[in-house]
Amino acid sequence: MPIFKTKNENLFKKWTPEMAYVLGFFAADGNLTLGKRGNHYIEFTSCDKDIIEKIRAILGSDHKISERKSKKENHKNSFRIQIGSKIMFCDLSKLGFTPNKSKKLVYPEIPQQCFQHFVRGYFDGDGHVTTGIYKKKDRINKNRLIFSGFTSGTKKFLEQLKRNLTKYHIVRGGTLYYSRGYRLNFSISDSLGLYKFLYKSLDNNLYLIRKRKVFEKYLNAVVA
Q: Could you tell me which residue ranges the DOD-type homing endonuclease domain spans (predicted)?
């Protein structure tokens, strides 16, 4: 007899902050898969097990989280959850997602009140933030720098994301270029604007802790 697993098959039918976060993460690190027997699967993958656990809870799922060991040295293992659901598969398809979506990712119509959560989900999947110290040759003092941004296999997706971040006055600039995929990068002022936007007024813990800590470590160092 088949083993039935629980899941919230209504999740992607209505926009909520939790749905928007999961959808954003799915846009970055999720996939739709059709099995050989016509089975419909949705899956999420990350090197951070804690975020997969949080997503599993929102999905109302009791599915097992599997671990894949990296074949490369100094690379983290990855964690994956796969859920069989034709309903959820179809709902994600209606939102514009397709199997093997990396180079044909469609930017969904996102309600403004859910935009923050969608972007934070996408950032936790395909976003980056780094800090460093820079010293000009003719100066004694060192400057602390922070850079952030997003990556995607689809240029149009990042172009629309940049337009909306600018439209809502979250960033003012940003550089979009190609380097093993498309990259949208922000310098110091826009990175701080992105930080305030991503984490403001949150009433849940739906974010990747290690990425938030990079922003806050920079801010603490600047204040000090």
A: 22-170
11-103: CATH topology: Endonuclease I-creI (3.10.28)
Among 18, 13, 16, 5, residue whose Cα is nearest residue 82: 5
- β-sheet with 143-152: strand ranges across: 127-134, 143-152, 182-186, 175-178
Q: Which two tokens stand for residue 169?
A: 């006055």
Query: How far is CA 199 from each of CA 119, 133, 176, 203, rounded to the nearest angstrom?
Result: 11, 25, 23, 10
Residue carrying structure tokens 């959820």: 88
- At 185-201, the pLDDT tens digits run 999 999 999 999 999 99
Residues 154 and 146: their CA atoms lie apart, in Å, by 25
Class of domain 119-223: alpha beta
Question: Cα 163 vs. chain centroid, distance in angstroms?
Answer: 18
- 13-42: average pLDDT: 94
Q: pTM, whole model, 2 decimals? A: 0.92
Buried b (16+ CB within 10 A) or exposed e, 42-62: bbbbbebeebbebbbebbebe
